[in-house]
Amino acid sequence: MEESRVIHEITPLMGKDALYIADRRKKEFTYPIHNHEVFELNFVEHAAGVRRIVGDSNEVIGDYDLVLITSPDLEHVWEQNTCTSDNIREITVQFYLDLSDDGFLSRNPFISLRKMLKEARKGLSFPMDAIMHVYQQLDTLSSVKDGFYAVMQFLTILYELSRCKEARTLATSSYAKVEVESDSRRVLKVKNYIAKNYMDEVRLNTLADIAGMSPSAFSRFFKLHTGRNLSEYIIEMRLGYASRMLVDTAKSVAEISFQSGFNNLSNFNRIFKKKKGCSPSEFRENYHKTRIIV
Known about the structure:
By secondary structure, the chain is α+β, with helices and mostly antiparallel strands. The mean pLDDT is 88. It has helices at residues 111-119, 128-141, 147-162, 173-176, 185-197, 204-211, 215-226, 230-248, 253-259, 265-276, 280-289; strands at residues 7-8, 19-26, 34-35, 39-45, 51-54, 57-60, 64-69, 76-79, 88-95, 124-125, 168-169.
């Protein structure tokens, strides 16, 4: 097992603090990849060309970027990449909310907020219209002097974001080590089966039997509930496990390919590059190149 190269950040949110808000202007991103116990909402403005890495998601952002992360284990970083802006603004809000089943957020008015915070364990990216909808409240958040009103304004921001239907999860569930969830008991049973058997051949007929449906009906049902067809879902899960092994272990690409359920190395390399934009070896090299050991 390789030594970890991810900084575990001890955040400034301490004791009985409710929020830590950092609103800063800068010319470059220099902080290495990290994770931390507290939740984080990170807004970046005027930083087109910056590379955002959240788990096994690797994207170049535009002029505006807003991401919510609620997992203590999910690595993330914003890297300078090709950004040439000398007027970058970054607003980082670190906080913690109780997501236990009997906590305050389990009450009915907070259903959408709770659902969003749980989704954000994989990292959640918001589209431009959602960003613009909360921009004014984000823009003024650091100038609110009264702590109570600052918390209320921030909760309003979160609530408005929770109503956005177009937010995208970034890391795959398998990479982020997030248990699969579903609004359908049938789909959940199928997802759990796939999660336990992804390294083997997963047959449509077997999954249809688990769901108690015909293969054709099950295929339509699965896509309706997940937004992806079955083969896409299985490939995404396998790639997530493969990416995690590339980061966490010194196993060869061939070993990882086989243990992730790809029985053909060239096929694994081709699919990985198509989905991730780089080869498995490049993914591992790029990941370690930007990390420092502490």
